[in-house]
Amino acid sequence: MSLLRKAERCFANQHTHKLLTAFVAAPKDVALFQQDLQAADERSKEGRGKSPIDGQLIAIKDNICTTEEPTTCSSAILNGFHSPYPATIVEKLKAAGALIAGKTNLDEFGMGYIFSPSTAASIKIDRHHRSHSTNSIYEAVKNIYTQNGDALSAGGSSGGSAVAVATGQCDVALGTDTGGSVRLPAAYTGIVGFKPSYGLVSRWGVVAYANSLDTVGVLAKNSSIARSVFDAIKGYDPRDPTSLPTSTRLKIDKHVTNRRAKLQRSSSPSLRIGVPREYNTEELQPIVREAWLKTLQKLRELGHTIHVLSLPATKMALAAYYILAPAEASSNLAKYDGIRYGNKSADREGTDNVLFAATRGAGLGDEVKRRILLGSYSLSAAAIDNYFIKAQKVRRLVQGDFNNAFALRHPLLPHQGQSSQEGQVDIILTPTAQSLPPTISSLDKADPLQAYSADVLTVPASLAGLPSMSVPVSVSDGGSQDLKEPNTVGMQIVAQYGDDDLVFDMAWVIESL
Ligand code: GLN
């Protein structure tokens, strides 16, 4: 199909699915967009495309800066904010010939809710300010899937990007993943969601939530498209101090390639797939557990071997994440004071402190304020030892667990000698989420623990900075199916740091099962 026809189809889908509120801004300069599209179409017809993603329509999560459209992070404090510069990754996409399809909806600054409905009621949280990409100044994002006519959650916080891809409103979308925000919505909407190793993709121009965890990820219909977008956006960026320099990337590539060459030469080129028993939680819905088992079974039939292993710190990972992420957020969000950044409150009387308080009071949502308070508290002299420092220690344990499990040594850490599990697995396979997407209306009544633990399976890989992807596997039995209900479950692939290629290879195997 020509690029022009494909784009027309995306626009028609944007119109049809308007009420799902995936997009919050369309491309500003329509004439320029049309011109770029025409040019890409001609290049494609003449077989001189700039890259594999030339002419692709890519949606951008609204916490990633573009210059034509506003960048709001779905927050009132940035409503109407225009960045003076684009994110490096946006520049890279454009240089590869891709077209920006618009900006997508998210949970405010990427933060879903963590408080129970009863707590929420007692502190009078606005009913609409809840998670699953529903915690937004815009309308809540809605999944294409419904249950008995009730809209399902699209997952958060990159829910807008996920729905835009799942409903064909664009070809691919960028999201950000701090604790699971690309993988969870991918799982809930039946598409793939890839989170790269920390430091491979530039964060320059990406609004920071928790720097040590933030990554930019890709949401796509399949892993091959996601791979070409990842190839286009990765690379060293001197403007991002956490971006890995080229020499380190080369070292990592060599390390990973050596291992893979050894694997190819060995008598069994099959993969050793790790199954961590801590991920088989009580809360796992039977349909999710069945999909997990079935996928493992099929992989075994292909000749891969399955190894049950233990990642003992998993149980503490979620608690550590919800100390560390808010702590970093409290520092990052201090700049939204109405002077350096953010919409200034109309109440300008009094001292700066009054202005700051009025600006933040009016501009930030309840969940964001809670994170800032929680983070400021855990960093305070009285609490830092008991909370922040302990959480950092847990983070080390989580990293250590993964290092013990993977055959491949972490390329950036000193060799720590053999452990009992070392050498065991090449890749880890778990479900992405414990359940199918809940209905949005049920979020109000949800068991608080269930809501709190939506990210429980995705957070460990984030704490360890590892590459990870959610890939949909079918759960339909081929019988009469209500196409409106979810018919896939997300499987999460996790690999050693720098082994992003193996994640894509594994995703391809799972997609072909
Ligand atoms: N739901 C998690 C949070 O609110 C994950 C967010 C993310 O990955 N951006 O912190």
From TrEMBL:
Give a yes or no for keyword NAD in this entry: no
User: Which ranges form a coiled coil?
Assistant: none
Q: Which Gene3D superfamilies match?
A: Amidase signature (AS) domain
The places in or outside the cell where this protein is found are: Mitochondrion
Q: Its GO biological process terms?
A: glutaminyl-tRNAGln biosynthesis via transamidation; mitochondrial translation
Active site per UniProt: K61, S157, S181
What InterPro entries does UniProt report for this protein, alphabetically? Amidase (IPR000120), Amidase_CS (IPR020556), Amidase_dom (IPR023631), AS_sf (IPR036928), GatA (IPR004412)
What's a single GO MF annotation on this record?
ATP binding
What are the alphabetically sorted keywords of the record? ATP-binding, Ligase, Mitochondrion, Nucleotide-binding, Protein biosynthesis
Q: What is its main location?
A: mitochondrion
Going by the entry's taxonomy, the superkingdom of the source organism is recorded as Eukaryota
Q: What is its EC number?
A: 6.3.5.7
- Gene Ontology, cellular component aspect: glutamyl-tRNA(Gln) amidotransferase complex; mitochondrion
Name one matching Pfam family. Amidase
Keyword Nucleotide-binding among UniProt keywords: yes
Looking at the record, the residues that make up the Amidase domain are: 14-503
Which EC class does it fall in?
ligase
Reaction(s) this enzyme catalyzes, per UniProt:
L-glutamyl-tRNA(Gln) + L-glutamine + ATP + H2O = L-glutaminyl-tRNA(Gln) + L-glutamate + ADP + phosphate + H(+)
- Cite the record's note on assembly: Subunit of the heterotrimeric GatCAB amidotransferase (AdT) complex, composed of A, B and C subunits.
Described by its record, this protein's role is as follows: Allows the formation of correctly charged Gln-tRNA(Gln) through the transamidation of misacylated Glu-tRNA(Gln) in the mitochondria. The reaction takes place in the presence of glutamine and ATP through an activated gamma-phospho-Glu-tRNA(Gln).
Q: Which family does it belong to?
A: Belongs to the amidase family. GatA subfamily.
Annotated protein name in UniProt: Glutamyl-tRNA(Gln) amidotransferase subunit A, mitochondrial
What is the organism field in this record?
Answer: Lepraria neglecta
